[in-house]
């Protein structure tokens, strides 16, 4: 018999609405899963058992009383530890905030709670989301459920690992240089990086920053889209928020891929990618490219993407963390320190150049999509690596100049302001999860989501590309 925690979010929500599944039963099942496996995986880092059971009982009472139910009613949702949750330890993975207990939810958590979700727990993240290895000085490292010696990537690694092991049906994430997409690829789950403002975020130090976004994570496209529906909102405190968010469809029907023009690239013309991953990607593409109207190996011209990314990211890190760096450097981890130190070396001329270059990259990217509907590339440049290794410092014998360079497959499109899905696509050459990205320009969230829904069906029908499931009993 299927345990409630093993149900998809869509299935569980339907059963709850039909009074066939108790929110209390579902929550207890998720708590039992955490009790069994979290000690070895370390994905969930803060939880109040009494409070979530109290919320689950209230959710059950609302169902039985015939009250109006939100779209996430009764579903436990994990919250990345960069987000603030009322009355729950919220550290951002930093010793500076290791005892912080917020008095209010942040705007993203509030939207999730308002749709009836049980705000369930905090999931682990690197300090302030800096880095693609989920480890920090407060909670330590999160392990990949497919191999406990390896990382789930980051910065949404706790959410990805928890979802892969059925600790909860849904979790939120965030994405700048691949913080949502890379963990999805490493853990065999699904995530969506929406266009800026679709999911309003009002707590950032720099509001005019379209590169960092909040987004949903789940085990399927439909589950992930369900959480997106709760996150979508209009909030004028986010300068990118607009009424366009309200035009997203309530459910996904899927696109007719025979009308879709698809481009694919193993490296986007600019990213270092392990040679074995290139080979795996091309083999995967060959299994499904015939389903599209057109499929061509091509990519946008990303111009001087690496320098552009480093300067703008440095600017944003200085804006967000300079005061911490000056007053509490000894408590900060190496990634935050590295970003701030490099950011401080840039001049106003450097920042001006980077923004002009980013505008050129954006226009080049939009022009490319006059010819194509979707661009597909790997979700990560390498196979999951040991979590003792802070970052990937070498690919194909080439030393990486910065700790972020190996993430160029994600940050290249970030600088062009995209929307992007990460989908599981079987296993790689090391029998670890392999993922792909589906990328389109900002504003095409609905169309891209319909394409992702249809492609997922095709991927799941093939043993070579279906979503891998970890053998968690070996953990």
Shape: globular
The low-confidence runs, each spanning 5 or more residues with pLDDT under 50, are none
CATH topology call = Amidase signature (AS) enzymes
Largest sheet: 11 strands, mixed
Radius of gyration: 21 Å
Spatially, the strands of the biggest sheet line up as 1-3-2-6-8-7-14-15-11-9-10
CATH architecture: Alpha-Beta Complex
- Average predicted local confidence, pLDDT: 96
CATH superfamily: Amidase signature (AS) domain
Termini gap: 22 Å
Any idea how many domains? Answer: 1
Question: How many helical stretches?
Answer: 13
Strand content: 5-15%
What is the CATH top level name? Answer: Alpha Beta
Tally the beta strands: 15
Overview of the molecule:
With 475 residues, this protein is an alpha/beta fold. The chain has one domain (4-308, 314-474): Amidase signature (AS) domain (Amidase signature (AS) enzymes, Alpha-Beta Complex). 36% of the residues lie in helices and 15% in strands. It is built from 13 helices and 15 strands. The protein has an eleven-stranded mixed β-sheet, with helices on both faces. Helix 5 packs parallel to helix 6, helix 9 crosses helix 10 (334-344) and helix 9 (305-328) crosses helix 12. It is globular. The mean pLDDT is 96.
Descriptive labels:
475 residues, Amidase signature (AS) enzymes, eleven-stranded mixed β-sheet, two-stranded antiparallel sheet, 15 strands, globular
């Amino acid at each position: 018999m299927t345990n409630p925690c093993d149900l998809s979010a869509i299935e569980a929500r339907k059963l709850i609405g039909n009074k066939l599944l108790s929110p209390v039963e579902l929550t207890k099942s998720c708590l039992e899963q955490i009790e069994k496996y979290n000690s070895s995986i370390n994905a969930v880092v803060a939880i109040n058992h009494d409070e979530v059971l109290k919320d689950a009982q209230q959710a059950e009472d609302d169902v039985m009383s015939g009250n109006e139910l939100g779209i996430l009613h009764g579903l436990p949702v994990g919250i990345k530890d960069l987000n603030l949750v009322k009355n729950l330890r919220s550290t951002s993975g930093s010793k500076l905030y290791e005892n912080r207990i917020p008095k209010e939810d942040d705007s993203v958590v509030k939207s999730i709670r308002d749709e009836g979700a049980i705000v369930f727990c905090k999931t682990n993240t690197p300090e302030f989301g800096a880095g693609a290895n989920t480890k920090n000085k407060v909670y330590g490292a999160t392990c990949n459920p497919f191999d406990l010696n390896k990382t789930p990537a980051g910065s949404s690694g706790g959410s990805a690992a928890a979802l892969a092991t059925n600790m909860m049906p849904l979790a939120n994430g965030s994405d700048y240089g691949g913080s949502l997409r890379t963990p999805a690829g490493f853990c065999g789950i699904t995530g969506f990086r929406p266009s800026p403002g679709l999911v309003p975020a009002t707590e950032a130090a720099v509001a005019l920053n379209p590169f960092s976004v909040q987004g949903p994570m789940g085990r399927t496209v439909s589950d992930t889209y369900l959480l997106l529906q709760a996150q979508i909102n209009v909030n004028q405190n986010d300068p990118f928020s607009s009424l366009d968010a309200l035009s997203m469809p309530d459910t996904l029907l899927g696109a007719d891929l025979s009308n879709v023009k698809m481009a694919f690239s193993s490296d986007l013309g600019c990213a270092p990618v392990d040679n074995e991953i290139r080979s795996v990607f091309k083999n995967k593409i060959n299994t499904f490219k015939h389903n599209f109207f057109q499929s061509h190996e091509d990519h946008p011209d990303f111009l001087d993407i690496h320098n552009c990314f480093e300067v703008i990211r440095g600017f944003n890190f200085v804006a967000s963390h300079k005061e911490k760096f000056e007053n509490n450097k000894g408590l900060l981890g190496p990634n935050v320190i590295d970003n701030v130190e490099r950011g401080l070396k840039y001049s106003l001329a450097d920042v001006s150049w980077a923004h002009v270059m980013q505008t050129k990259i954006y226009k080049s990217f939009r022009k490319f999509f006059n010819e194509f509907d979707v661009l597909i590339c790997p979700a990560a440049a390498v196979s999951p690596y040991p979590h003792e290794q802070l970052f990937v410092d070498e690919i194909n014998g080439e030393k990486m100049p910065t700790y972020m360079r190996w993430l160029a497959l994600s940050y290249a499109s970030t600088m062009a302001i995209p929307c992007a899905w990460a989908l599981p696509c079987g296993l790689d050459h090391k029998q670890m999860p392999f993922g792909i990205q589906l990328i389109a320009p900002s504003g095409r969230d609905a169309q891209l989501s319909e394409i992702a829904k249809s492609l997922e069906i095709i991927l799941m029908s093939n043993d070579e590309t279906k979503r891998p499931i970890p053998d968690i009993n070996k953990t």
